[in-house]
Write a structure and sequence with these properties.
7-stranded antiparallel beta sheet; alpha+beta; globular; oxidoreductase activity (chains A, B); homodimer; about 475 residues; 5-stranded antiparallel beta sheet; about 20% strand; Uridine Diphospho-n-acetylenolpyruvylglucosamine Reductase, domain 2; Uridine Diphospho-n-acetylenolpyruvylglucosamine Reductase, domain 3; Alpha-Beta Plaits
């Protein structure tokens, strides 16, 4: 029989968690708390292969006050909190910590206002990205943040991870589309920074403390989003080039000739291009015997009226010797067909599973050499491994997919180390757009100096001294 | 005769400042320190009317290590430090504190690198903005940050104040043009965040702690700047509209029709337009009997080729009833002539001195009503006061100039209170682009909540616990 002292701690914990749950129920309402097997399986994971711990409860507050109350209670009880959006992250940033309260933002699924005269929208953190895109469109605007998870991801999660996507080259990251934020701090304080002006230099802009913080410094509850003018369509071309220097030259030429209107510049190396043709059966717009393929897109008010300028840009690129071969989309349907080559990655991933996938960035000038070096290093270390390279190269972002890895490097750790060591040597980032979460924690120091890590820890201590917000993530 | 204890403190201070100066001389070199009357008069003020205290010394380090050494020493001696760039600020952010070491960045006047393949430039904090603009141009690019002080302001100061200027509507604030930063912290720690990628989500982006912090959290020593494609010229029009709603409609129409290519949208209310015609003798491109005048500009690769599209946009605006009258520039010289109306503010300021000048922002939709309310309030309170309204309205930024104030409100305080109370009621900012410095400290709480101010103070305590960096500024 155990000594009484042996039992005291668990009993206190039990009492303590009972008190916590009672307080939470009072704060957010009985029906907004789930426990044990009532917690949906989906709340236990995200789109990565990270596995977290067993949560204490899943809480779904319906407004900012309820989020603040829930955080105040968890803070009082020293209980970890894991904020969850659409759980579409690829870095494990939203998977449960052991014994944590999962704080779902799904109850904050609101569009509060569309101010067409100011070109902005006010939304709740739980609003699905696609709903925001469609509401902007209906109002004659565009909300240009766009990524594969658009139908499931929530804007709060996009903000917390500073999501990137397909059109960063023209419209920036999520950060660049956020005018204002409302955030609840670790102790339940509501910090309203709901700025509606493109220009506001009344002291430091505090919203940048939370954009990209992955829920470790505060919980985003509302946002003021910047809208862009609506677009009527796009011109696009699939351009084959001889090497990366020609690709970079083509981008520079296109940006100059089109006055910075390039909305996407996606590169696909030959290995990717052949793989996507083989796996998807899409017809090749250009022969598959070139080194690199660039998908250039220019969205605009009137795609037909803008086509001559787009074609003139490509003709001049031909004359300058930058282009080996090219196909120009003659309709919006052909624009979509070109994009299906890029979107075909989803099929490649399922055909080659299990794969290991990278989201890295390198200064644009060095991408060509970096890709060559990674390819050579992996060929040497893992001769049987299939690797494909592609990505939002106009933004310095490369993705590579290696796999199946089953019989080659089942944990993927050896492949990761080989790739990230080259990324470090090139002054690149181990996470271009997906964030750090759990998955990339071991590699963070490859892209951030000791002084930067010290400053990140200092901010965490200052804003969340009890360490209850998304503990164990990022740092 | 004073007691010995009465004399001890000054004597220690004397000894202490002798030790400090000896250490600083060793760190940065004898020739880089000036004291007393050797300190140039220009170092004692900026372009505002703020007056600071008497500095202990002016130190001009020649590299980052010397900046770090100087800060480490001042930190050890608990001595305040005031960083100084080109001292062109209008808020008093760079005027001396009593007994402070002035830290001039003029010795860090370097362009380290122009990477044309990545579209970026690496510069020292002391580099003059115009030199950066010209170097970008020579390399076939554009560095689009542009403001009246371009020939004197330093990029480090632009970054510390998150400077705005004429083309924010297309290229953003200084923040949006900074990829990476090197900062020296209060205790002399060098924090290198010299990122070169548009996409980098490897943990929180720390540079935003320092952009717009006005030298209160760290001293910017180097930066990686983002370059835009070079431009060949501009199309521009001066458009008279019946009211603010028509102006806002015109902007929305133009952004849509031109696929977001508007590079400037400056409004001049009738009072400004008449004043600039009277004070400068510039010929009126459009009759001076309309409510508001918009200067619309679209920079681009080839102004001649882009003119038909620009004209079509204006014709459609006419047909939609948005335009009362308009003149379209037929040459780059006429584009400049239109800008001379806007730049004529310099002459108005000198003719009407002493004036009181405002740099405020208001959500775009509310600018028209806000201007009307401010005009009415000032007419009631100060019937003899002349007031003119203009500004970067496309970015939500309004400037207004009131004066001469000599016989009406000599301190300007009554006028300030009247204006800022209306700005507060409209949810606007007391500083759109100039920062807070000393000048706007009394009004900061009009635009930031108590929780925001508490967070700003908390960050200050965490990053600069001794409070030596630009003390008394902003907070």
């Amino acid at each position: 029989m155990p000594l009484e002292t042996d039992r005291e701690e668990p009993m206190n914990l039990e009492r303590s968690s009972a008190g916590l749950l009672t307080a939470l129920k009072r704060a957010v309402g009985d029906s907004n708390i789930k426990r044990g097997s009532d917690i949906p399986e989906a709340a236990l994971r995200d789109w990565s292969d990270e596995r977290g711990g067993t949560p204490l409860a899943l809480v779904t507050p319906r407004d900012t006050d309820a989020v603040a109350a829930a955080l105040r209670i968890c803070h009082d009880y020293d209980t970890p909190v894991v904020p969850q959006g659409g759980r579409t992250g690829l870095a494990g940033g939203a998977v449960p910590s052991e014994g944590a309260v999962l704080l779902s933002m799904a109850g904050l699924d609101r569009i509060d206002e569309i101010d067409t005269a100011s070109g902005l929208m006010v939304v709740g953190a739980g609003c699905i990205l696609q709903r925001i895109q469609e509401a902007a469109l209906d109002a004659g605007f565009s909300f240009p943040l766009d990524l594969g998870a658009r139908g499931s991801c929530q804007i709060g999660g996009n903000i917390a991870t500073n999501a990137g996507g397909n059109r960063v080259i023209r419209y920036g990251m999520t950060r660049d589309l956020v005018l204002g934020l409302e955030v609840v701090l670790a102790d339940g304080t509501v910090l309203s920074i709901m700025n509606r002006m493109p220009k506001n230099n009344a002291a430091l802009d505090l919203k940048h403390l939370f954009i990209g913080s992955e829920g470790t410094l505060g919980v985003v509850t509302r946002a003021v989003l910047k809208l862009h003018p609506g677009v009527g369509g796009a011109n696009a071309a699939l351009v084959a080039v001889a090497d990366f220097e020609a690709a970079a030259g083509l981008l520079r030429h296109a940006q100059r000739a089109l006055s910075g209107r390039v909305t996407a510049f996606e590169l696909m190396w030959n290995d990717y291009y052949r793989a996507v043709l083989a796996e998807t059966g899409v017809r090749a717009p250009v022969e598959p015997d070139h080194a690199i393929y660039a998908l250039i897109e220019m969205q605009g008010a009137d795609a037909d009226a803008e086509r001559p300028g787009f074609e003139a840009m490509l003709e001049a690129a031909f004359e300058a010797g930058l282009v080996a071969d090219a196909a120009i989309a003659q309709s919006q349907r052909e624009v979509e067909a070109f994009w299906s080559l890029r979107d075909g990655i989803a099929e490649i991933l399922s055909r080659r599973a299990p794969t290991i996938n990278f989201d890295v960035s390198v200064p644009l000038a060095r991408i060509g050499a970096c890709v060559d070096e990674i390819r050579a290093a992996l060929e040497t270390a893992f001769p049987a491994l299939k690797v494909i390279f592609f990505g939002h190269a106009g933004d310095s972002n490369i993705h590579l997919v290696a796999g199946p890895i089953t019989d080659i490097d089942p944990t993927g750790h050896g492949i990761e180390k080989a790739v990230y060591e080259i990324i470090r040597a090139y002054g690149g980032s181990v996470s271009a757009e997906h964030g750090i979460g759990l998955h990339k924690k071991p590699w963070l120091a490859y892209s951030r100096s000791e002084n930067e890590l010290a400053m990140l820890r200092q901010l965490k201590r200052s804003l969340d001294p009890k360490g209850i917000l998304n503990p164990g993530k990022v740092l």
